[in-house]
Design goal:
The protein is 87% helix and 0% strand. By secondary structure, it is an all-alpha fold. The protein is rod-shaped, with a radius of gyration of 30 Å. The protein starts with 9 loop residues before the first helix and ends with a helix.
Length: 76
């Protein structure tokens, strides 16, 4: 954070306030951009998770059937 002005005049304070507002706006824009990147990564992760979950749901019956058949062959 910038140091406050030493003088008592309004012009010094107004410049100080304007600089602080500009600095805060820059920080806000950086944070906003970073948040957009995080949201996009979460969306991608959600898609991958959904695809994996769907794939497992489709493959599970086949794996169970294969395991049952394998056990049947072992016991006969």
């Amino acid at each position: 954070m910038n140091e406050s002005p030493k003088g008592n005049g309004w012009s010094e304070w107004s410049r100080y306030i304007l600089k602080e507002l500009e600095r805060l706006n820059e920080q806000y824009e950086k944070l906003d951009k970073r948040m957009d990147e995080v949201v996009q990564r979460l969306i991608k992760l959600e898609r991958v998770t959904w695809l994996l979950g769907g794939s497992l749901a489709l493959i599970s019956p086949v794996l169970i059937w294969a395991a049952i058949e394998f056990i049947k062959k072992l016991t006969t």
